[in-house]
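dumping this here before i forget
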Amino acid sequence: MKTGKTALITGATAGFGEACATRFAKEGYNLVITGRRADRLEAFKSQLEKEYGIQVKTLAFDVRDNNAVKTALHSLEDSWKSIDVLVNNAGLALDLSTIDEGNTDDWDTMIDTNVKGLLYVSRVVIPWMKERKQGQIVNIGSTAAKTVYAKGNVYCASKAAVDALSQGMRIDLLLYNIKVTAVHPGAAETEFSLVRFKGDENRAKDVYKGFTPLSAGDVADVVYYCCSLPSHVCINDLVLTPTAQANAYYIHR
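structure:
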Protein backbone atom coordinates (compact mmCIF):
# COMPACT_ATOMS: atom_id res chain seq x y z
CA MET A 1 0.00 0.00 0.00
CA LYS A 2 1.34 3.42 -0.94
CA THR A 3 1.89 5.77 1.98
CA GLY A 4 2.15 9.04 0.08
CA LYS A 5 5.48 9.54 1.85
CA THR A 6 8.90 10.07 0.29
CA ALA A 7 12.33 8.91 1.44
CA LEU A 8 15.61 10.26 0.06
CA ILE A 9 18.48 7.78 0.38
CA THR A 10 22.09 8.53 -0.51
CA GLY A 11 24.50 5.84 -1.62
CA ALA A 12 21.58 3.74 -2.80
CA THR A 13 23.37 1.62 -5.39
CA ALA A 14 24.77 -0.95 -2.92
CA GLY A 15 24.92 -2.11 0.68
CA PHE A 16 22.87 -0.38 3.35
CA GLY A 17 21.54 2.24 0.93
CA GLU A 18 20.21 -0.33 -1.53
CA ALA A 19 18.67 -2.36 1.29
CA CYS A 20 17.06 0.73 2.85
CA ALA A 21 15.59 1.74 -0.50
CA THR A 22 14.11 -1.74 -0.93
CA ARG A 23 12.70 -1.74 2.62
CA PHE A 24 11.05 1.66 2.29
CA ALA A 25 9.71 0.76 -1.15
CA LYS A 26 8.18 -2.39 0.33
CA GLU A 27 6.37 -0.17 2.83
CA GLY A 28 4.94 2.03 0.07
CA TYR A 29 7.32 4.99 0.17
CA ASN A 30 8.16 6.85 -3.02
CA LEU A 31 11.92 7.25 -3.29
CA VAL A 32 14.63 9.64 -4.32
CA ILE A 33 17.74 7.49 -4.69
CA THR A 34 21.20 8.92 -5.23
CA GLY A 35 24.62 7.56 -6.05
CA ARG A 36 27.54 8.00 -8.40
CA ARG A 37 26.63 5.15 -10.76
CA ALA A 38 23.80 6.35 -13.01
CA ASP A 39 23.39 2.98 -14.73
CA ARG A 40 22.89 1.17 -11.44
CA LEU A 41 20.43 3.81 -10.25
CA GLU A 42 18.30 3.48 -13.39
CA ALA A 43 18.27 -0.31 -13.23
CA PHE A 44 17.34 -0.17 -9.54
CA LYS A 45 14.60 2.37 -10.24
CA SER A 46 13.01 0.06 -12.82
CA GLN A 47 13.18 -2.88 -10.43
CA LEU A 48 11.62 -1.00 -7.52
CA GLU A 49 8.83 0.56 -9.55
CA LYS A 50 7.93 -2.76 -11.14
CA GLU A 51 8.04 -4.76 -7.92
CA TYR A 52 6.42 -2.30 -5.49
CA GLY A 53 4.34 0.03 -7.67
CA ILE A 54 5.93 3.17 -6.26
CA GLN A 55 7.53 6.18 -7.94
CA VAL A 56 11.30 6.57 -7.95
CA LYS A 57 13.42 9.57 -8.86
CA THR A 58 17.15 9.03 -9.52
CA LEU A 59 19.88 11.61 -9.02
CA ALA A 60 23.44 10.72 -10.03
CA PHE A 61 26.09 12.78 -8.23
CA ASP A 62 29.01 12.50 -5.83
CA VAL A 63 28.14 13.75 -2.33
CA ARG A 64 31.68 15.15 -2.04
CA ASP A 65 30.87 17.78 -4.67
CA ASN A 66 28.80 20.50 -2.99
CA ASN A 67 27.84 22.18 -6.27
CA ALA A 68 26.72 18.86 -7.75
CA VAL A 69 24.69 18.12 -4.62
CA LYS A 70 22.93 21.49 -4.75
CA THR A 71 22.32 21.34 -8.50
CA ALA A 72 20.89 17.81 -8.38
CA LEU A 73 18.65 18.27 -5.34
CA HIS A 74 17.33 21.66 -6.40
CA SER A 75 16.45 20.16 -9.79
CA LEU A 76 13.69 18.15 -8.11
CA GLU A 77 10.16 19.24 -8.84
CA ASP A 78 8.40 20.80 -5.84
CA SER A 79 6.28 17.68 -5.37
CA TRP A 80 9.47 15.67 -4.73
CA LYS A 81 10.82 18.11 -2.15
CA SER A 82 8.35 16.97 0.52
CA ILE A 83 10.93 14.61 1.98
CA ASP A 84 9.62 12.68 4.97
CA VAL A 85 12.79 10.66 5.60
CA LEU A 86 16.39 11.46 4.69
CA VAL A 87 18.81 8.56 5.06
CA ASN A 88 22.38 9.88 4.96
CA ASN A 89 24.00 6.59 4.06
CA ALA A 90 26.78 7.41 1.58
CA GLY A 91 30.08 6.59 3.23
CA LEU A 92 33.15 4.39 3.10
CA ALA A 93 36.40 3.30 4.72
CA LEU A 94 39.69 3.10 2.87
CA ASP A 95 42.56 0.88 3.99
CA LEU A 96 43.94 0.23 7.47
CA SER A 97 47.13 2.06 8.39
CA THR A 98 48.81 3.75 11.32
CA ILE A 99 48.38 7.50 11.46
CA ASP A 100 52.00 8.14 10.43
CA GLU A 101 51.67 5.92 7.34
CA GLY A 102 48.19 6.91 6.19
CA ASN A 103 47.43 7.81 2.60
CA THR A 104 46.30 11.44 2.66
CA ASP A 105 44.18 10.97 -0.47
CA ASP A 106 42.29 8.22 1.38
CA TRP A 107 41.86 10.59 4.34
CA ASP A 108 40.39 13.25 2.08
CA THR A 109 37.98 10.80 0.47
CA MET A 110 36.73 9.48 3.82
CA ILE A 111 36.29 12.91 5.38
CA ASP A 112 34.76 14.44 2.25
CA THR A 113 32.28 11.57 1.87
CA ASN A 114 31.44 10.59 5.44
CA VAL A 115 31.32 14.08 6.95
CA LYS A 116 31.11 16.81 4.34
CA GLY A 117 28.85 14.81 2.01
CA LEU A 118 26.38 14.24 4.85
CA LEU A 119 26.45 17.96 5.59
CA TYR A 120 26.01 19.04 1.98
CA VAL A 121 22.93 16.88 1.45
CA SER A 122 21.44 17.78 4.83
CA ARG A 123 21.96 21.50 4.20
CA VAL A 124 19.67 21.33 1.16
CA VAL A 125 17.01 19.00 2.55
CA ILE A 126 16.60 20.36 6.08
CA PRO A 127 15.00 23.68 5.02
CA TRP A 128 12.35 21.67 3.15
CA MET A 129 11.60 19.76 6.33
CA LYS A 130 11.61 22.93 8.43
CA GLU A 131 9.05 24.51 6.13
CA ARG A 132 6.70 21.58 6.72
CA LYS A 133 7.69 21.23 10.40
CA GLN A 134 8.09 17.49 10.04
CA GLY A 135 10.50 14.85 8.87
CA GLN A 136 13.18 12.47 10.06
CA ILE A 137 16.89 12.33 9.35
CA VAL A 138 18.73 9.03 9.79
CA ASN A 139 22.52 9.30 9.77
CA ILE A 140 24.36 6.03 9.24
CA GLY A 141 27.33 5.92 11.57
CA SER A 142 29.33 2.93 12.81
CA THR A 143 30.49 1.20 15.95
CA ALA A 144 33.76 2.91 14.94
CA ALA A 145 32.12 6.13 16.16
CA LYS A 146 32.00 4.67 19.66
CA THR A 147 35.24 2.65 19.91
CA VAL A 148 38.45 3.56 18.13
CA TYR A 149 40.48 0.58 16.91
CA ALA A 150 44.06 0.16 15.72
CA LYS A 151 44.73 1.56 12.24
CA GLY A 152 41.17 2.90 11.98
CA ASN A 153 42.12 6.44 13.03
CA VAL A 154 40.63 8.68 10.32
CA TYR A 155 37.68 6.44 9.53
CA CYS A 156 36.83 6.28 13.24
CA ALA A 157 37.18 10.05 13.46
CA SER A 158 34.85 10.57 10.52
CA LYS A 159 32.18 8.38 12.09
CA ALA A 160 32.65 10.07 15.47
CA ALA A 161 31.90 13.27 13.59
CA VAL A 162 28.67 11.74 12.30
CA ASP A 163 27.78 10.92 15.90
CA ALA A 164 28.47 14.49 17.04
CA LEU A 165 26.67 16.02 14.07
CA SER A 166 23.62 13.87 14.74
CA GLN A 167 23.48 15.19 18.30
CA GLY A 168 23.89 18.75 17.05
CA MET A 169 21.15 18.31 14.44
CA ARG A 170 18.82 16.90 17.08
CA ILE A 171 19.28 20.01 19.22
CA ASP A 172 19.08 22.54 16.38
CA LEU A 173 15.98 20.96 14.83
CA LEU A 174 14.08 20.35 18.05
CA LEU A 175 11.91 23.42 17.49
CA TYR A 176 10.81 22.18 14.09
CA ASN A 177 9.45 18.75 15.05
CA ILE A 178 12.18 17.04 13.03
CA LYS A 179 13.50 13.73 14.34
CA VAL A 180 17.18 12.88 14.07
CA THR A 181 18.42 9.33 14.54
CA ALA A 182 21.97 8.01 14.38
CA VAL A 183 22.19 4.30 13.53
CA HIS A 184 25.60 2.75 14.19
CA PRO A 185 26.02 -0.73 12.66
CA GLY A 186 28.78 -3.13 13.59
CA ALA A 187 30.30 -5.75 11.29
CA ALA A 188 28.06 -6.15 8.25
CA GLU A 189 28.91 -8.12 5.13
CA THR A 190 28.41 -5.68 2.26
CA GLU A 191 30.82 -4.09 -0.23
CA PHE A 192 32.30 -2.18 2.74
CA SER A 193 35.41 -4.32 3.25
CA LEU A 194 35.89 -4.83 -0.50
CA VAL A 195 36.01 -1.05 -0.88
CA ARG A 196 38.22 -0.64 2.20
CA PHE A 197 40.75 -3.12 0.82
CA LYS A 198 40.46 -1.75 -2.72
CA GLY A 199 39.13 -4.87 -4.39
CA ASP A 200 41.10 -7.51 -2.47
CA GLU A 201 38.36 -10.15 -2.17
CA ASN A 202 40.30 -12.56 0.04
CA ARG A 203 41.19 -9.87 2.54
CA ALA A 204 37.60 -8.64 2.55
CA LYS A 205 36.20 -12.12 3.19
CA ASP A 206 38.60 -12.68 6.08
CA VAL A 207 36.92 -9.85 8.02
CA TYR A 208 33.78 -11.97 8.45
CA LYS A 209 35.30 -15.40 9.03
CA GLY A 210 34.27 -17.31 12.14
CA PHE A 211 31.04 -15.51 12.99
CA THR A 212 27.74 -14.45 11.45
CA PRO A 213 27.85 -10.75 10.54
CA LEU A 214 24.92 -8.42 10.03
CA SER A 215 23.40 -8.23 6.57
CA ALA A 216 22.43 -5.01 4.80
CA GLY A 217 18.83 -6.11 5.26
CA ASP A 218 19.26 -6.32 9.01
CA VAL A 219 20.39 -2.70 9.10
CA ALA A 220 17.61 -1.60 6.76
CA ASP A 221 15.02 -3.24 9.03
CA VAL A 222 16.33 -1.25 11.99
CA VAL A 223 16.40 2.01 10.02
CA TYR A 224 12.82 1.50 8.91
CA TYR A 225 11.73 0.61 12.45
CA CYS A 226 13.17 3.89 13.72
CA CYS A 227 11.13 5.72 11.08
CA SER A 228 7.90 3.82 11.76
CA LEU A 229 7.42 4.88 15.36
CA PRO A 230 4.64 7.22 16.53
CA SER A 231 5.21 10.92 15.91
CA HIS A 232 6.01 11.59 19.57
CA VAL A 233 8.74 8.90 19.77
CA CYS A 234 12.30 9.43 18.54
CA ILE A 235 15.23 7.04 18.84
CA ASN A 236 18.19 9.40 19.06
CA ASP A 237 21.09 6.96 19.03
CA LEU A 238 21.17 3.24 18.26
CA VAL A 239 24.03 0.73 18.05
CA LEU A 240 23.43 -2.67 16.46
CA THR A 241 25.94 -5.47 16.13
CA PRO A 242 26.02 -9.17 15.38
CA THR A 243 25.53 -11.27 18.52
CA ALA A 244 29.20 -12.22 18.27
CA GLN A 245 30.36 -8.59 18.41
CA ALA A 246 30.48 -6.44 21.55
CA ASN A 247 31.94 -3.31 19.95
CA ALA A 248 34.25 -2.26 17.13
CA TYR A 249 37.15 -4.14 18.73
CA TYR A 250 35.76 -7.27 20.41
CA ILE A 251 34.45 -10.05 18.15
CA HIS A 252 34.11 -13.70 19.16
CA ARG A 253 35.11 -15.96 16.29
